[in-house]
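Dear colleagues,

As part of the handover before I leave the project, I'm documenting each prediction I ran so the next person doesn't have to rerun anything. This entry is a single chain, and its sequence is reproduced below.
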Amino acid sequence: MTVVLSVDESRSLSERCLQTAGYSAEDSAIITDHLMDCELRGVPSGGLPRLLSILERLRDTPQPAGEITLLRENALSASFDGGDQVGYLVAHKAATVAIAKAKETGVGVAGASNTWMTGMFTYYMEMTTRVGLVTMAAGSSVQAVAPFGGTEPRFGTNPMAFGFPSDDGPVIWDIGTSNIDHAKVSVCMRLGQPLREGLAFDEHGQPTTDPTAASSGAYTVWGGYRGSGLAVVIQLLGMTTGADASPVGMSGCGFVIAVIDPEIFTSADDFRRRVAAYADSVRTSRPVDPAKPVRVPFDRSAATKAARLRENRVEVFDVVYRTLREAADSPLAPPPRHLSTAGGRPRLSRHNCRAGRTPDRTGRLAPGVHGRFDRERGGGREPRRPADRSSCGQATGGFGGHGSHASGVSRTD
């Protein structure tokens, strides 16, 4: 079952949860803006369900996060220690600084380590293209994906993105180098629903559709040997920030962003015009299927967001909504480990070697918690309920599918 909220209702719920958990109003707004962007762009696994992972991570980490600290800086670059703060804040800071340097000198580069969950890179691409700048970003993370031909994890889901401003909306390409990402696996675990075939191995190297087994094994790499090579390169780029090659649990991610003012090479106004003209030429390519015209990266994403803003509609899984309502009123209240009515005891990921209650790489609580989720929790106003989403493979946003909007072929096509 799902519930339907307005955009303002969704945003308010998220900010209440984050402020109850201890975030300032300013930081809550930054994180919420990112989560809502995912919801509106048709990437629900990166939206409000991901907020549960943030709350679980906070509740389950013994030491509070530190400050985001500037380690090194010159006219062109800056390096940050994220202080184990959530990546939505750390990457936002890095992008902001890189943009400022590019405006001043023509080029700005920023890197950050010691962070987690940097979200959908499209968000940072829009920050830069909105002010007429070209940008690229890459991020390394916990080893969760098997290299081509292997069954054991050796690199992260490792997204990368490029953004180009134009007179007719930006061209943004944002991909993950795995066939499924942590957010989708986490949603499937919460709902007790299987993954699609071909997306993961269990810890013994056998193909699996069980999301819990996948979290203890490895996800498959996107793009065969080409995607595998790209993922290795991104892991190495993340390491330039000081990030570990194999961080433990949901921690130790690396983030790099480079921003360029096209004015250092050519007329920025002319560049934006030519980008728009080129994008149109790609769209007018003769389609294989006349009913499916060719798209440029970001076309679907921009159209989906515009439509959902007009409709003022955000769909949220019922169990996610009810748990967030409780979390909004209960400081650091841990959401249930497993939200399906079947109950269960998810296994500890073998990548979580720290003792105690360490979150695993999907953002879930590490120790198993018995019990059933009571669907009657909550109270008050009940939003509208559309039809059920029958499985992760069928859910809006393509949870667990090839070519879905938050992993694989394109995260923001």
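Residues 69-264 form a domain with the Ribosomal Protein S8; Chain: A, domain 1 fold (CATH 3.30.1370.60). DSSP finds eleven helices and eleven strands in the chain.

All the best with the project,
I.
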